[in-house]
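Thread amino acids onto this structure.
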């Protein structure tokens, strides 16, 4: 909460900037501040009129409706409310304390992030032996893929990491993947021999979603090297690619289960030496209890910091909506070409597509123009992966939530990938689990990307758009399709309206709709204006200017 008395112009600017920076230019903040530089109601100006005035200013200049103004961490009270009662001050102080308690600043996030890197990762180089347990029948059998393709994906995951390389790999069948040692006795023994005899192995990657702490420990003891599962490998890739505060916090949260497993294993080791029952410094807590409590506290702190960022995201979202830029979320399996496509559509040179799994971990927004000059915002999202552990998805769910609030979804598929059908099924499943609204599912545009890599590409599926994001082929057709769907889904129309230049029609249209083009006819003082306008605004326009 901001203390209104100490609120300097600079402080206010930084509050506004932190909240609106992604969508508003500096100049607009300045305008509101010039109107109320001290944040106080001028002497003699009635409170209600002052409040109305500031609200109107915020609405017109910042595009923030009054009810949202209230949400902006005390902005209204800082700007509007000059009531100086002690009650109000006390409330503010209390809120301030509350806020401070779970406030995490950038350096703290960084420290947390670096501190809790799970053992065995870090800068270490690994020569990895990959084991893929193949379940041939039963409920755990994978029907849409083959063990070879799953192995190829596991190799891809390892190769994504700079200092890791695959030394050897094996597919072994098992009937009992849920058992501690995963394989039957015979297979396990021969596997152990192979691992122990292959020189130079530093880690084994067991290609299952998640190993229990006990399994992990037993396998590490049997094989004498570090053991990773899919969860820990994917998380490590995330860790290497995280750039922003939110991504780092989400990863730190997803790492908590790993830290818990590690803790259990450490305590089990201590147990064997009788360490568990020792109390720490007369506190009445055992080592395990203290560690668990600290972990719990850390988890709560991360969650509340993430919640704060989520609220801010919500505000940005409603603002984006208010600004009436349609939002198009570009989604798809990891490495299918989402970032490359957005770069091609927007010309945003800041985007860096990489031939790497999970190159994009943060949701970023990029403005682009459609054929009719309508501005849309493309949202670049994190890629999907089959069998991505649920806990991991959970911690990134806020990021994925954004998808649900778009006006349109574009599903990009790497059509040159051998697993492309399976990847599509996977993406649709994730969307189903996210409970993406039906209207978005039915209007979703499916794009077949990387057609340059397929000889004589011909689609066997109807209603899909073939493109090559890299060679910028098929983009015009895609933009036309996006525009058509956006116009449909947002209830907007693209119209040519004839306006009388001596009337306020044109300025009204500038305010209430998106003006694309103005062709002035100097002779009769009129102009033909191309606008994108909502049904509601068009109704008001007709009512206001009927008969002109
Ligand atoms: N040949 C070819 N390669 C492409 C095409 N589109 C993307 N790529 C390549 O595919 C790789 C992945 O591209 P990205 O755009 O980073 O993929 P992404 O879907 O954003 O990946 P993540 O962010 O990791 O989920 C890069 O090496 C791109 O150059 C295409 O149309 N043709
Ligand atoms: Mg990307």
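Threaded sequence (548 positions):
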């Amino acid at each position: 909460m901001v203390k209104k008395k100490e609120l300097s112009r600079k402080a206010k600017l930084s509050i506004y900037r932190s909240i609106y920076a992604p969508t508003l230019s500096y100049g607009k903040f300045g305008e509101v501040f010039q109107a109320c530089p001290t944040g106080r109601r001028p002497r003699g100006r009635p409170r209600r009129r002052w409040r109305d005035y500031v609200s109107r200013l915020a609405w017109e200049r910042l595009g923030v409706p009054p009810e949202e103004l209230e949400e902006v961490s005390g902005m209204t009270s800082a700007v509007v409310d000059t009531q100086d009662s002690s009650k109000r001050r006390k409330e503010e102080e209390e809120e301030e304390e509350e806020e401070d308690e779970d406030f995490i600043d950038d350096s703290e996030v960084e420290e947390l992030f670096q501190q809790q890197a799970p053992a065995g990762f870090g800068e270490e180089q690994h020569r990895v032996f990959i084991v893929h347990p193949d379940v041939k029948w039963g409920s755990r059998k994978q029907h849409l893929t083959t063990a070879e393709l799953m192995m190829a994906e596991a190799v891809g995951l390892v190769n994504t990491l700079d200092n890791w390389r695959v030394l050897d790999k094996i597919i072994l069948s098992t009937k009992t993947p849920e058992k501690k040692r995963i394989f039957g006795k015979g297979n396990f023994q021969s596997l152990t021999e192979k691992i122990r005899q292959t020189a130079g192995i530093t880690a084994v990657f067991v290609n299952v979603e998640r190993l229990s702490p006990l399994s992990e420990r037993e396998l590490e003891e049997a094989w004498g090297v570090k053991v990773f599962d899919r969860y820990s490998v994917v998380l490590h890739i995330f860790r290497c690619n995280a750039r922003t505060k939110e991504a780092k916090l989400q990863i730190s949260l997803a790492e908590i289960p790993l830290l818990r497993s590690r803790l259990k294993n450490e305590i089990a080791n201590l147990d064997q030496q009788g360490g568990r029952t020792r109390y720490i410094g007369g506190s009445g807590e055992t080592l395990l209890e203290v560690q668990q409590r600290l972990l719990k506290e850390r988890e709560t702190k991360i969650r509340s910091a993430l919640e704060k960022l989520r609220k801010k995201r919500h505000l940005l979202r409603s603002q984006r909506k208010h600004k009436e830029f349609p939002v198009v979320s570009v989604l798809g399996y990891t490495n299918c070409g989402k970032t490359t496509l957005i770069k091609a559509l927007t010309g945003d040179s800041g985007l860096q597509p990489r031939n790497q799994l999970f190159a994009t971990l943060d949701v970023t927004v990029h403005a682009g123009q459609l054929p009719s000059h309508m501005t849309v915002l493309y949202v670049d999202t994190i890629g999907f992966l089959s069998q991505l552990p649920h806990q991991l998805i959970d911690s990134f769910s806020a990021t994925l939530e954004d998808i649900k609030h778009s006006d349109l979804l574009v599903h990009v598929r790497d059509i040159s990938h051998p697993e492309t059908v399976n990847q599509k099924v996977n993406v649709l499943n994730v969307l189903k689990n996210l409970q993406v609204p039906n209207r978005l599912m039915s209007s979703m545009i499916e794009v077949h990307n990387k057609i340059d890599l397929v000889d004589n590409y011909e689609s066997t599926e109807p209603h899909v758009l073939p493109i090559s994001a890299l060679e910028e082929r098929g983009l015009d057709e895609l933009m036309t399709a996006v525009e058509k769907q956006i116009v449909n889904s947002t209830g907007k129309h693209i119209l040519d309206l004839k306006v009388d230049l001596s009337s306020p029609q044109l300025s009204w249209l500038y305010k209430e709709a998106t003006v694309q083009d103005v062709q002035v006819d100097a002779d009769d003082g009129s102009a033909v204006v191309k606008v994108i306008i909502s049904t509601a605004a068009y109704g008001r326009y007709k009512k206001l200017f009927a008969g002109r």
